[in-house]
Amino acid sequence: MITLSVVVPVLNGERYIADALSSLCRNARHDFEFIVVNDGSTDATGDIVDDFTRELPGLTMLRNPAPVGLADARNTGLSAASGRYVTFMDADDWLAPGYLARLVEAIDGLGCDFVRADHVQVEGRKRVVHRAPMAHRGVVLDPREAILPAGVRTMVDYPYAWAGIYRRSLRDLLHFPGSLHTAEDRPWIWRLHREAATFAVVSLAGVFYRRLVSGSLTQVGDERQLHFFDAFDLVFKDLEPEFLPKAVRNFCALLAHHLEIADRFTPALRARFEERGAHMVRALPAELVSESVARMSVERETALRALVPDLPPSSHVRVRRDREET
d(Cα 200, Cα 95) in Å, to the nearest integer? Predict the structure, then answer.
């Protein structure tokens, strides 16, 4: 019986995949399986993974002849998984020794649907621990109660699929919207918190997340960034009214962030991005948008009001809480 399935999608990851797999070797157990989904790589990624077959028991590589994107690559791995639990890993990250066993111990002990954990952000030699935004640790909670309040950072603002472990019996709740080539984790985390029964957060930081990696989707300024709007269309679809203020605030903060770094876009793509952004903002309740904008920095408020000049002023006192959701 397999206890844990680890799904690792990778596209042209020859620079980092050996580090990722080496860290999995330091986490291997006879009841763990490691599913690498080679998403149409054209570099040496496949050869490197093949080289680890003897070193890493339970390693399997699935090959997509052409890239299908991160979401569907993860879904391919999920479909092949046989473990009682599943977790994800990005190919340019690595894990602390023994981290996976501690994750399994946590979810076994708590008996909940999924467990979220902290992570370590890596920029060059710099290491910073980022804590999941939940003060209550090691106790079973209702995932819906971790969505609000709207005015502070909550668990839906911490969407990283690789920072946790999930019962595979959640089935469709674990699948990602394959139509998205970026921001796929946003509707994923919202649906998980709206529809799963139980979860917990533990104080465990064993994922080392490389930030600002060249070629990663967060750094690419092509048409895939327009999927940000498609992702939030899915978040807002059939959303309960009680959660709408939080979703609006979440969207506005992320939109402002994208506008801050819009220089990565070509002029034509930037125009399309701004057009879609303005259209989507105008489709949201104006008062909720105004309240969200009032809590941003002056720079972010200016960017959003330039995007939507007819946005009404807020009747609420300004509170500065810049970058809560990003």
Answer: 20
